[in-house]
Structure formats: structure tokens, C-alpha cells
Amino acid sequence: MTTIPTITLNNGVEIPQLGFGVFQIDPDETKDATLTAFEVGYRHIDTAEMYGNEAGVGEAIRASGLDRSEVFVTSKLNNGFHQRDAALKAFDGTLDALKSDYVDLFLIHWPLPGIDVDYVETWKALEEIYATGRAKAIGVSNFQQAHLQRLFDETNVVPAVNQIEVHPYLTQDALRAFNTQHGIATEAWSPIAQGGVLDDEAITSIAERVGKTPAQVTLRWHIQRGDIVFPKSVTRSRVEENLDLFSFELSDDDVAAIGALNKDERTGPDPDEFNYIPS
User: Is residue 169 among the annotated active site residues?
Assistant: First the structure.
């Protein structure tokens, strides 16, 4: 089985650098898709309250025969629960859906800078959860530098992770450097820009030379830069392909060439403007 490297977070918790994402996987398909990921060799699952499929992840863990301690599970607070009491109740809902006593990592999904409830209040609720040990680490998702700086100034726990959109067309070099400066690990969502980078000549030429697919080359670029990634697929062959990132390396020139593709082009919302709350 492939040995996946781990990254040590700022509180000593170790997270596998490569995981399996269940974003946009139908709740009814999540159990089987996650079981496939376990069979292939993944031990890190990234879900969220907003995805509606935490229960399927929990079912897969129980059906897998794996001990709970062998699986790293991340979930995220849904956008409608930023008030303290609502956040605490929503976290209880996550544990209930997973049928687990804890999560390994719990994140604020979006900062929602335009809503009445300030994300600083939300973060303080996560600090309370963290103090109980029911979340082994806490972090944020889609936070910009200014959002993070407010947490540093007004709260006590530095986020362990900042999960942000990162791919060759949105390299996020400044934000990634800011994360690193403050001991925050960067997780990259949409790591292949929803497939948008896979036809880029710079990537396809490297892929042809090293005998790997454009997706593998792009994911390997993330790995070598130190990002934590969790590609998603419901196709077993693709799940296996996405795991095969550790039998080859990109040269420094390859890494630089892919990084030079940056266009500051997002596939998702701008965190400074996104204030969506599900109905």
C-alpha cells in the first residue's frame, strides 16, 4: 500500500498530505465512494456540513473495519451557524452524523464578512470545542490575510489549517506564505481547477515527459509545494490514479513552470464577497 506522507500541524496533530474529498458526491453514494477510497489506501477524508454527506462518511468508516483512529476526518461548520450557540449545536450534529466522539479537524467553512455574526465570535466557539478535545484541531477555510489577522489579534488559538482555493491558475503565493509565516498549513481545494488546467500545454508536456497524467502532475506540484490536497472522484480508476503521486518527482524547473501559469483566476467565489447562507 502507498505510504502517504503526513504534515505536522501547529498543535502536533499529524494530517495525511493527500486525502479524499467528498464535495459534490451524492449523500447516497458517499458510503460506497469512501469505502473505495479506503480500499485503495486513503486514510484522510474531507467532508462538510454543507455537503450533506457526513453520515455516509461515518457509515463507510464503520463498514471499513478500520479503527476510528486510523482515519483522519475533517468537517466544516455550515454557513448558517456562525452564532456561538448555533455553532456548538451544529458541531454536535456533525458528531452525531458521523457517529463519532470526535473529528480530527473542524473548520469554519467561510468567513462571511458581510453577515451580522462576526467570524471572530464563531472562532471563539470553535476554541471552546477544541478545549473539550472533541475536535483534535481547528482551522478555517477561505480566509484571507485580513480575516486571519483579526483572529490573531482577538482570539487565543492560531488556526491549524487554512483551506483555500489553490491551483496552477490561482497559485495564492502571498496567502500561502502568510499561512506558513504563522504556522498554518495550507490545504488546496479545487487543486486541478475543476479540470481547467489539464489541457494547459505546460502541464501536458511535463506529463508526457514523466509518463504521468496531467492530473497527477498537477497534484504532484501541490505535494512538492507543501499543500495538503484531497481530490475527488467516484471512479475507482481515477481514485487510484490520484493516489499514485509518490512514485515520481517534478524537477524544480517543472514546479516553477507550473507556478508561472498563475492568472489569479478563481473557479469558486471570492471570500471577501461571498456571504451565502443556505436556506
Answer: no
